[in-house]
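Quick one: structure tokens for this chain, please?
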Amino acid sequence: MEGKRRPAASVQDVLGAMDDLVTTSVVGQQEFARNLGLSVTDLACFSYILQAGDSPVTAGDLAGRAHVTTGAVTGIINRLERGGFVTRQPDPADRRRVRVTALPAAAERVRSVYGPYYSLLEELFEDYTPEEIAVLSDWCKRASALARTYVDDSCGP
């Protein structure tokens, strides 16, 4: 596949487009969360749990990743558990710690909400060559790591 000619863009153009994407995504996250009966923070925490796959997430890890206190994360886990999104179990190595995993049915519920959007994104990716997709993937991964570091360093827990 030959790449399409793209219009010239400056770094400022990309930053403006990224700001628009982030803002629109925040609004979208609010709507996705509402459709699932969750708050945005609860949905973000569930997303972190899903990203862990089969590896249980500790409450402490979740609190750190979501930038909430351990007390707040307890409430989040309680709501996710009541909503049928997660299960929690004591950590066998340290009974004071809780390990949280996603329930398969809940993961499917979230996929059903995000699925149509991801399908549209996949259609958009069809306009890009594999090399362009590799650049986009690299940029997103590096920008996400940079954002996480910036938030960790600038905002604290």
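The CA atoms of residues 17 and 72 lie 33 Å apart.
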